[in-house]
Amino acid sequence: MDREDGPLKVTGAAVYAADHHPDRLAYGYLLTSTIARGSILGMDTGQAAKAPGVLALYTPFNPVKLYPYAKEENAELTPPLQNTDVRYYGQAIGLVVAETFEQARDAAALVITRYSAQQPRASFTDGLPSAAPPPSGTPVVDVLAPGVTSIDQALAAGDVTLTATYSTPVETHVAMEPHATTAFWTADQLTIYTATQGVRLVVDRLTETLGIEAAKIHVINPYVGGGFGNKWGMWAHTPLTAAAARALGRPVKTVLTREQVFSVVGHRPPSSQTVSLGAAPDGTLVAVKNDGVSGKSASNNFYEPVANLSLVLYGSANLHVSRKVVTLDVPVTTIMRAPQESNGSFALESALDELADKLGMDPLDLRRKNDTPIRPSDKLPWSSKHLQECYTMGAERFGWSRRSSKPGTVTDGDWLVGLGMATATYGASRGQASIKVRLRDDGRAIVSGTAADLGTGQSTVFAVLTADGLGIPVGRVVPQLGDSATPPAANAGGSGSTSTNGPAVQLATDAAKAAMVTLATEHDKSPFKGQEVTFSNGEIRGGGREMPFGDLLTLLDVPAVEATATSPRSPVRDHAFRSFGAHFCEVRVNRWTGEPRVSRWLCVVDAGTIVNPKTARSQIAGGIIMGIGQALLEDLRIEPETGRFGNATMADYLVPINADIPDIGVEFLDYPDTLLSDLGARGIGEFGIVGAAGAVANAIYNATGKRIRDLPITLDKLL
Ligand code: MOS
User: Fold this and answer.
1) Known catalytic membership, residue 4
2) Which uninterrupted H or E stretch holds 204?
3) Measuring from each residue's beta carbon to the nearest atom of ligand 1, which residues come in under 6 Å?
């Protein structure tokens, strides 16, 4: 199916958080700090307050009241303006509200802020020698075979060993839609349009920081222009805007500028991993050791346990993973597409390739050899794994046999040509979700729940599953997502939307059909009263008669019937759930300039049931494109003296554009994971990016003989 919301988006009919213009709307503009560490001594707001159109100016010296977050999962978030601390460059330290956006922005420029500044901790590399245990989570995990006392002992028993250190820079999401919040109050009831991956998350956090009950907060956000983790939760502009709207008695809208999106909201921390592998001569891994370090902001506790993938991806009797952090005075760190695994896999997949080289083995054969039907960390069987089939299909269709085992030997004019591969993977889960399906007398079905469609195709999945269940054309289903007044479904994160919401949509569709059958057989005026009837192809059938549900509702003068159903979280504890697949790519490196160009890609995906192949293909391709960006381009630089992100613009923070991306092949195996749900879908939002950067690095090595262990692989590293 085409994207059900595609026509709305390309015609501009889809209304995003910044697109709302309630009557008497005022505009907020954030003031942000220009030091990275210290405190604010004073703010001269006199000129700004007198500037044209200014309605209010909130600062730490004249704040709107926000309460600290009490719940443990939110406790690390600090409400803005409640003290004079500065913890990073670009922190929200004020909100100017004016009649127009331009007036607010211009007034903000007139505020003079005096600081007491300290030297920020800005270099991840400088901090590595003093990396510390993480604020939460287990610092070290050892899984050792009987009789083995340490991972180093296990490594020493390997016939072939390898140790190498890999690093990744700060990355950031740069979703196309900047974060925005429009808020207004009707008496004590707050309505808020805000770009988010989960309207319920916003209700939850606003409840705490505004100190009002959830029933008073209505969050609406049906369309999201990309999230990638950066619209999970809530950032400073949202409670400030809501509180300002309350204080002023007017609707207020705050849209972050593109540069503010780099600092006011979160980013992916930098990482370093030292990987040691030990193997038998036939390639069997005997020990995998991965010491991972992640950057962490001084402002919050989120870090990435980047080494974790080493516990689950390849079989080995001995495993060791450690986690450390380097604390930096930088903006808040947060989840970004496949947190810990996309950057984590770069190290593991590169190391496997290096080991294959040492063993004189084809890297695909090395991965085949260490495929395992169990999760190595706890020996639980995988629920449904067809990785060998992915490898085989991918190798055949991509032409892997044409790869030269000698790096730097295949050329095409000025270009060195290399092939690389890596395993793709991401975990799966099924949480609890409630969905409502409403059958209307116009023959349409409305399917609703608090899910979010970040551009993923989630609303199309809702439409497809509801239409399938009812036996009606997809065009007669209207999905309603992103509204906190609908039943509580899964927020969009952790690749869990379809796996969690999909079964609930199916249950709710069945329940709505049952409600329709009950009406047909019990309503006094129903021609089916007292008969045996069925609901199929959108019709009530019985007694030799059939009638579309819309016609029957019209006949009975009943506008609609509806049902809400809840699908529980998965009760399965004796299996582990994860998707697997294989990336194959070709990269060309210019012999004279070192310019790398990805020229071919194929990904074979075993992710359970694929509900809608067209949007699913886009999800996988999108992940791969982001992985190519991670491999070759993305690098947010921290200025050592100031702690400022030095390239916080879309001209300087590079992401792939169309000209950087070849045609991407995606093949789905489509084996339902029936242990996860009857639907059997595991989720695909993050799968495509995992392994992608490793595959590129491996192809570049094959092309040039140069092993680059530090992302991104820019041309200077290849000269
Ligand atoms: Mo995603 S990083 O789970 O939004």
Assistant:
1) no
2) helix 199-210
3) 197, 227, 229, 232, 335-337, 339, 493-494
